Amino acid sequence: MKKVFLLLFLGLSLVSQSQTRVGGVVLDEQEKPVPFANVFFTNSSVGSITNDDGTFYIESKNSYDSLTVSYMGYETKTLVLTSNYATNLRIQIKPEASALGQVVIYQGKTSKKNNPAIDILRKIWENKRKNGLNQFDYYEYDKYEKVEFDINTIDSALINSRIFKGIEFIFDQIDTSRVTGKNYLPIFINEALYEIYGSNLYNKEKEIVIGNKNSGFSNNKTLVEYVQNLYEEYNVYENYIKIFEKSFTSPLSTTGINMYNYVLADSAFIDNKWCYKIVYYPRRKNELTFKGDFWVNDTTWAIKEINLQVTKSANINWTRDLYIEQEFEVLNDSVFLIKRDYFLSDFSLSDKKTARGIYGKRTTLYDDYKFDVPRSKEFYDLKPDPYRDEIYNRDTTFWNARRMEPLNKDERQVYKMLDTLKTVKAFQRLYDIGSILVTNYIEFDGFDYGPVFSTFGYNEVEGLRLRTGGRTYFGHNDLWRLEGFLAYGFKDEEFKYGLSGKLMLDRKLRLMISAGHREDVEQLGASLTNTNDVLGRSLASSSLITVSANNTLSHINLSTIALELEPVKNFNIHIGGSYRKLIPASPDFSFDYYTDESQTTTKSTIEQAEISTLLRFTPGRITSGYGVDRSIINDDEFPELALNYTVGMTGIFNSGFNYERIQFFYRHPFVLGGVGNMTTTFEAGKTFGEVSLGLLNVVPGNQSYFSIFGTFPLLNYYEFVTDTYVSLHVEHNFGGRFLSRIPLIRKLDLREIVTIRGIWGEISEENQMLNASTSHPLLFAPSDEPYYSYSVGVGNIFKIFRVDFHFRGNYFDTPDARDFGVTGTFEFSF
After folding, report:
1. Hey, what CATH topology would domain 440-826 get?
2. Domain limits of the chain?
3. What's the CA gap between 102 and 110, in Å, rounded?
């Protein structure tokens, strides 16, 4: 997760006489919490299961006067309720005199044999592919999605704090969550209506947006789409449910019997279908599992209703509660289709119950199913205009007619409240601060100043570096953009600058033309597959603290022009030309090369013209925006393939070399169910022709204390130089699978990471003979055997930091070789 919701606020309770709301904790005689006990209103089916810390909360629109608690091996206890609202109950239960023996169904660890609940689970596995949309060649339906954010746990201190001075009226809309019992204030809502067309014959699905509306943030579509992706759709029948970048084991998983206890708790008619109720809860703590229940039909073995709640001990950051409900409708005797999906998460910086936080809620409704309406394959491939203003400006009449469920009083007030808030300066200040944290820019009318966090830098050549810059910005779908920066180094006493522009010629094909120029100090060789990003700059050029002095920086004078298009979704073609001039920025570093066969004349400046064609395919990538710039919503969740072909030419200005270069890049993240996430990166490249040091493929080292993606942390800059190479990086994050089982350590929620990096390369004799560099008189390539290193890391330290310990595998005798190192980085993830 690249954007984390920083969630601030604290609590006050309102009593509603029309509902019964109870909560608290269930304890044994030793005052220890009783996890997964059954708590329900007496003589009703309204209830819940206690969390692994013994806490619970339930509510009903009806009035009840008593509460019942049951747990295997303990006496069932009924408690008289003296009020319709009680959220701090302490209920103590006693061991049963004839403990055990009568009913084994609610014992802590349920049996995997002779358990009717597991027999039913196996029937679900056998029939899961016979239910739902999988049965039809073609299907269509309408989908309505509502995403809402609410401040929760609000108290008088918060209401009266200076931060809300002048906007106290927003607290008039406080309500109470039916899931957690906390009070909340709606602050944001987004509604969207879609038409979905799918074909199992073609394995294609098409989604058409026909209406979108949100409160207060109409210009910040990136925020809306990021939130929608955060709550991406999931299938409870799958073995793993991906939520917040993590894979939770589904209670319907074929591996579920090893992760959950199952109990056959009840049976009843639902929509004239006889169904069984199964209660489930985790076998172990600190794993990515749920607790809850589901109703399943006794003939089709299809799920009718299911509730899932993440256990308190699950290793997930910033989230105190996570709750899911799904309901399915009966189309006929054999088809159950999803009708309603409700998702609630309670985000907070603290796990304390009294800490302030924000609810994120998504409600999705499905209606008007149609089946076996044949459509051509071209229909699913047809790409309409990606942006239409009328979709985002539907009137009230449209929403009243097409909205699948009416907004409640609180939700209706959100639109009115935020329209008012936008006129209040205090609210605008809060919005501006949040916008800077997320976008890295300070917004003005038509212009953004930034990136803010690039203002300061340091390197050996420039010393302290100050940078100022900005971009034009009129909206999320701008068809043109200008960007620029100006920087000054206090050591070299020189100004640097850059300017670029983009213009979209065709929005449907994303046909764009761009051009730019930059004069700057840069660390070349920071990645194997370099691009001509005219305003780009690597972290290696500005690291405040380094392992050793970096004297291999270069002055770069770069001009580019390019044409780009996207003929197919997520397939980009980039054709560009560039001209660069490279000069060593330090007297201790040189690019010198021989200009004659007798090796008597050298040149220290590189001037080179290139034409390149870059093909990039990113299947599964989700982006926001339809202008010249788009935001990537699902960072690090999609594969990326790139093929770059470059031709260097002489005869243009003072261009010095003729050559061809081909490079291939492939990166793929894998979600491996219960064993974590793996990311593999493969690169290969070759340069045909003779080129000097500044144009060769430098194996990217890292002399900083920060972890930099794609680099080799124990290599110095220019330690290995190649013209042919093959590289592989493999990183696996176990997500705390092992550390969570160690007493004491498990409470820290640490996550273990293992990384292996390797590269093989060589350099031709012709390129070696061309080199006349005084700083690198002999160029080394890992040709005898692949160079490799491995790392062991610990992530999620204080939920925001990661440390990696690196070990060199070979080539210990290269000059200034480092055999061990430590790097760290800030990581914000769930």
Report:
1. Porin (2.40.160)
2. 20-107, 440-826
3. 14
